[in-house]
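Weekend entry, working from home. Most of the wet-lab plans are on hold until the incubator is repaired, so I used the time to fold the two sequences that have been sitting in the queue since the last round of cloning. Logging both here for the record. First:
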Amino acid sequence: MSSILSCTDGSVYARSVYDHTAWAAQRMAAAVHILHCLEPRRNPAALTDLSGAIGVDAQAKLTAELVTLDEARARVAQAHARAILADAERHLAAAGLTCVMGEAIHGELTDAITRFDATADLVVIGKRGEHADFAKLHLGGNLERVIRSCHHPVLVASRAFAPIERVLVAFDGGPSSRAAIDFAVTNPLMRGFSLHLLHVGNPNPELQSSLEAARSQLAAAGFVVAADVVPGDVEQVIVDTVKKESVNLLVMGAYGHSRIRQFIVGSTTTTMVRTCQIPVLMFR
């Protein structure tokens, strides 16, 4: 049975994550594993030895109070996690899913992804998290690290779920593009949708051959598919195409350049996730 890992922090994007998870699980006939990460466990708060300034008794009392405070915070965090998972399970059950399991673990989400990614066919995460800055359109702090650490496709949920019918595949002929095509052919997630393969740049024989091979592979699998090569700025052309064709899902490779190159010239991946108000399915 296929498995979907659905990551939630209970933020404003949580409901959208659940809706996208339910959509994917129904199409893939998949079980759902809901994951919520608590802050890593820490040792009781330690104080610099201030006994010379405030006295030994005061130091001991203050240390005991801090330990009690840490324990209270841990209990609140656990209760909050249980509430988040219960809400997620109710939401998915209302969508008709029956094979759902929730789990809260201590640690960073990126570390958890490494642990669970091996058994997940798809990872679903919100575009922005608990501390999102919507005014500045900042992405969630975990998003890029999660996508980089996943070996399976990552579905980045938009602010709200909308029915998906038209899919745009940003195709560059590289390994991630081929992985997306193979996934479309072998996995039921995108079955029955109209697909548009789009390469942004100048045409060349090698690219044209790769694009035609991908189009033929999809057509043989029963897809209605168009393939185009359009010159221009990658980010602008994709954004314009999404709007013009009322695309509901963008499929693309994730972070194809080195970290150093991204630092210098930016990342198409990050720009697309930030500016396109639709879900993005990413492949490494």
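Second, folded right after the first finished:
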Amino acid sequence: MGDLIDILQETRHLFIFTGAGISTNSGIPDFRGPQGVWQTRQPVYYEEFLASEEARIEYWDYKLESWPTMRDAQPNAVHRAIVDLHRAGKLLAVVTQNIDGLHQMAGLPEERVIELHGTNRWIECLACKRRFDPQPLFDEFSSTSRPPRCAECAGLLKSATISFGQSLDPNTLEAAQRAVEECDAVIALGSTLSVYPAAGIPLMAARRGVPYAIINRGPTEHDGLPGVTVRHEGDVGVIFPKAVERSLADRAL
């Protein structure tokens, strides 16, 4: 663990990339693991959502099913450790694939969190872009089994997330690329690093020659690539908080 602690102590502008594996300890299932969402559900692609009422019903049915877990989840030790790094003045940005909002709930300012795949904290109208509190809309769908429409313009409503086949927001990508250019170290936590273009972002930082550490249970697609300087296999919820605690304690001595 000493190599990871060294990175944490030496960095002044840390870029952290997070995936679903950091939120499983908060009760949110991942997507591709043995108990992952895609073992029992098939994703609804964006074009299907736009074209088919049947697909929209399937989409809303899945979101309704998963909403209580997402709504009630609480930050865990990994989220809190990242906040500790922020308070120590070491954190440049968190670029996350997660849509659960737990980084902000743990205490990270909104401006430090770049949500590549959007957020489940809001329902968004695809036409007028207004955002709505999810709970009343899930209650409506639960009682009618009809996907709700925007109360302002009657446009299609979906969670403010990026669906399969939907383009990432260019402003979000630009913010992530700025973090790549400004960071002096990058750490990937709880991601298989297999979903692109998101997974290419930490590699962009590594190609600049800054230290790149990966912590994940199970293989990642970046294992063994040039630029990966530290690789820890195991529970990110154990490894990372301990390393942060040690690095900040040693710094205080």
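Plan for Monday: verify the second prediction. The two ends are 19 Å apart (CA to CA).
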